[in-house]
Design goal:
Length: 320
């Protein structure tokens, strides 16, 4: 009897538990795979406290799972803000199941759990784009694919942020029940089956959790003036530093070189302009500091995976 276990830790977003559960159950029913056993497991107590104060009763505890064909680790929220540390016994059990041949899957920030269990080293993995840089710092031996919606490396698969659980669950339906059943599930649950990248959904979240006051002042100034003409020497002078000192301190503080930071800031302003205004692309390019519209279009495509017009058509509220 094939067995799938979904691990739900306390403080998890319950959609990353109930979503895969619903999609896999639907796939099993459509495939008439009545022997499939799909369960939710908790760490210790079988009552799981999720986001928003909602509780979920698990079928079993992870410690009691000695065998499983598939283990899905649900999202855990922002791992940087979790109030509880991961239990050593949980990480050891994941490692043991992996050694026994269990296929491992993570949903969103569940990849943090797999990495902490030591089974992602040297493997490709993905997670929510908003924590990908932090995860790279925490687990440098993992081959993080920041923009990937899904990764597959051996018998370990990871999905990107939030609703990417749909893409992963649909892939699992495809793997275990076939393409025809996966298509039926996609149509029934209204899932786009052709999403391959998180780029179009990502945004720029500047690093400000540092103590360098001069660099913070420059960041504040750039928030208002990034589209204006200036040089790195101008910024260095504003910070009362040499250009070399400025580059070094800026990169150390925000984990990004100044030019890359400025470009990312301009692209974020372009994304906002495309979705909240009807200005022409050429005007938005100039308003964001780019006189060469062709260059702007190429930078935007590299930043989001979409052309400016396609991005507007997909995300502009007034296009709905």
């Amino acid at each position: 009897m094939p067995r799938c276990v979904i691990l739900a830790l306390n403080h998890c977003p319950l959609s990353s538990v109930s979503g895969p559960l619903e999609i896999l159950l639907r796939g099993a029913r459509l495939a008439a795979a009545h022997d499939w056993q799909i369960e939710v497991a908790a760490e210790q107590q079988q009552t799981i406290s999720g986001h928003g104060g909602i509780s979920l009763n698990a079928h079993t505890r992870l410690a009691d799972v000695e065998q499983a064909d598939l283990l899905i680790v649900a999202a855990i929220g922002d791992p940087r803000k979790r109030p509880d540390a991961l239990q050593a016994s949980t990480l050891q059990q994941i490692h043991t199941l992996h050694q026994r041949g269990t296929r491992m899957v993570s949903i969103c920030t569940g990849a943090f759990v797999l990495a902490a269990a030591g089974i992602l080293e040297g493997r490709q993995a993905t997670s929510h784009w908003a924590v990908s840089d932090w995860l790279q710092q925490q687990f440098p031996a993992v081959l993080w694919q920041k923009n990937a919606m899904l990764t597959h490396d051996g018998n370990i698969s990871c999905s990107g942020g939030a609703s990417a659980y749909q893409d992963m669950s649909l892939q699992l339906v495809r793997d275990y029940f076939g393409e025809s059943v996966a298509l039926q599930v996609a149509r029934t649950v209204l899932i786009d089956s052709d999403r391959h990248s998180q780029l179009q959904y990502s945004g720029f979240m500047p690093e400000r959790q540092h103590q360098d006051e001069r660099i913070l002042e420059i960041q504040d100034w750039l928030d208002q003036h990034a589209a204006e003409p200036f040089t790195l020497a101008d910024l260095a002078a504003r910070a009362h530093l040499s250009e070399r000192q400025f580059k070094r301190r800026f990169t150390l503080a925000v984990q990004q070189p100044p030019l890359a930071y400025i470009q990312a800031l301009r692209m974020e302003k372009a994304r906002q302009a495309l979705t909240t205004s009807r200005r022409q692309v050429e005007q938005i390019a100039r308003d964001c500091g780019y006189e060469d519209v062709r260059f702007f279009r190429e930078l935007f495509r590299r930043s989001t995976g979409l052309t400016p017009l396609t991005y507007r058509q997909k995300f502009a509220r007034w296009q709905a």
